[in-house]
Structures are given as C-alpha cells and as structure tokens.
C-alpha cells in the first residue's frame, strides 16, 4: 500500500475532519456505533489496516444504509487502498443524501482525478465553484485537472486565481511551475518553484530538480533531489510510513542526473533503489537497462528489458530497446521479433521496423536515458 501524501490525500484528510466534526444527522444504534468506532480505529489518518476499516464500515452500512459517518469513512478508506471507483460510489450516495454538502463533490472529484476521468472531476469542481467562488483549493484542483489534460495555459489560469486568493499557497506555486515547465516556459517555472520552496514546500525541490535536469544542470538537480529525499525521510519518520510504502520516483530522477554526469555506478544504485520502492514501475527497468548498455553490461541490460516486459506486456519502449540491444549484438532475428512487438503496440516504430526487416541497422543507435 502506498501512503505517500499527495495533495488529494491531504484534501481527503482535511475534509474527513470536517465530516467527523459535523457527525451524523441521527444517532445510530449501539451496534452501528461500535462498527464505526472499529472502522475509525483501523482507518482514518495514519490507519493501520484500511481493508479491515472498510469491513467494519460496511457492517455499519448494512444496518444503516444512509449513515453518513460510515459512508464517508468507508469512502476515505477505499481511497487509501486505491479503490477509487468504490469511493466514488460512496460519495455519490452521500451526495444523494445531502446534495448541498460541497465536501462530497470535492472529494468525488479527487477520486475521478485519480482514475484519469478528468472531465468528471472538472464537472464536480465547477459545481463547487458555483456555490463557493472564492475557495482557492477548488481553483487549485481545477488547475491540476487541466494540467493532466495537457491544457497548460488553462491550468496556469486556475493556479493563478488560487494564488490571487491565497498569495501564500505554496502548492499552487509548485504546480503552476509544473505547468510552465510542461509548456517549455522554464524561466517562469523556476520562479514559481523558488517561491514554493521559500514558502516551505519540499515537493517543489523535486520539481525544481527535474527542471534543472531538463536544462542539463545535473549537479543542481542532484542537490535538489537530495533535499527532497531528506525531507521525505523526515516526513516518513513523523508519519510512521515504512520505506517500502513510498514511491521511488525521485530516485529514478536522481539516477538519471547521475547518468547525465556519466557517473553510472551512482546512477545504477539510485535506479535500483527506486525499483525496490516501486517494483511495478516497468519503465524503471528500461532505464536501468539502458544504463547497463552504457557500461557494456549487456546481459544485465537484457535481463532488465525482459523484466520490464514481464511487468507490463504493453510496454512498447521495452521491446524497442531490447531490439536495439539485439542489433548491437548482431542478432537480427531477435531484433526483428522485438521491434515487431514494439510496432504492434505503437505505430511510431514502423520506420525502424522496416529498416531491421531489410537486415540493416539504423545509422545511429541511441539508448536514451531521458525516458521517465
């Protein structure tokens, strides 16, 4: 289970506190009270067993199907275990019971965002905005939705409105910086990341590190990734989060920065640590495989490309780089097989597929390290 505290999870926690303070519209019977108490014990903030929490809330709901406290608690636990569709179902039920409770729309929008249904998230957020047009967090989450849709100018507009309402909104500065970076406006991005960091954001140090990486300033990038890792370690200790329950993303990026400096030993160490933390991230194996190729460690590279495909059989990039490795080793039959698989998954590989089919090599074979 991943307990990394994302902006959406922070919103879940804050909103749940409001729900808990509001309580239920009617007093439940003692058995329902007991089930809810057990659900809260195992779930909620820093929960110890969210699946057990879901079980107890469900028992309460079986007795009182319209119990808001049980439904909202179960929805939160569903979100913690990544079951956003069931969380959405609970929030939809809550909205039917209390259509004026804006928290439920906002929480449902966060779940829609998590499963990539951005238009539905935007619909819910616009409803909230109509009722409360001065809530900076709603503009912020609209910015996140439009950024995910790659509509960066619109995202920047909403982030800017959030900042206008709350000039110290560090998360809005950080995310607006991401949108500026995504559209190639690196100077504006750097300015926003610096503002977020000055306001106390440690997440922005990772975002600035990625920007420095894009600009080829690898030492600056590594410094920022180090700061982010140190901050995350402090947060982990304070939140009682185990090492294996966090994401390996920053280690992948720091590994790429080390690779940019041609410090391949450090690069491999970082990417390997990232894979320990995120073993289901297929592209991490491709990245490490490409670094192994740079060191002429071809057997290890091939093993990583195979692992990437095992983790995600639709990873066309893994097939592509395995095909390039086959070419380096002059194995045209395997190269053709792997590029055919890549082409089946992504038509952009047609030209190189045709080249290999003619038993020819591309003029330049590049194992790119900028693939995350």
Describe the protein's architecture and organization.
The chain is mainly α and about 375 residues long. Among the domains are: about 1-115, Serine Threonine Protein Phosphatase 5, Tetratricopeptide repeat (Alpha Horseshoe); about 285-370, Tetratricopeptide repeat domain (Serine Threonine Protein Phosphatase 5, Tetratricopeptide repeat, Alpha Horseshoe). About 75% of the residues lie in helices and about 0% in strands. Residues about 1-5, about 5-10 and about 15-25 have low confidence and may be disordered.
Task: Please outline what is shown here.
With 372 residues, the protein is mainly alpha-helical. Helices cover 73% and strands 0% of the residues. Among the domains are: 1-114, Tetratricopeptide repeat domain (Serine Threonine Protein Phosphatase 5, Tetratricopeptide repeat, Alpha Horseshoe); 284-372, Tetratricopeptide repeat domain (Serine Threonine Protein Phosphatase 5, Tetratricopeptide repeat, Alpha Horseshoe), CATH 1.25.40.10.
List the defining traits of the structure above.
372 residues, Serine Threonine Protein Phosphatase 5, Tetratricopeptide repeat, 20 helices, 73% helix, disordered N terminus
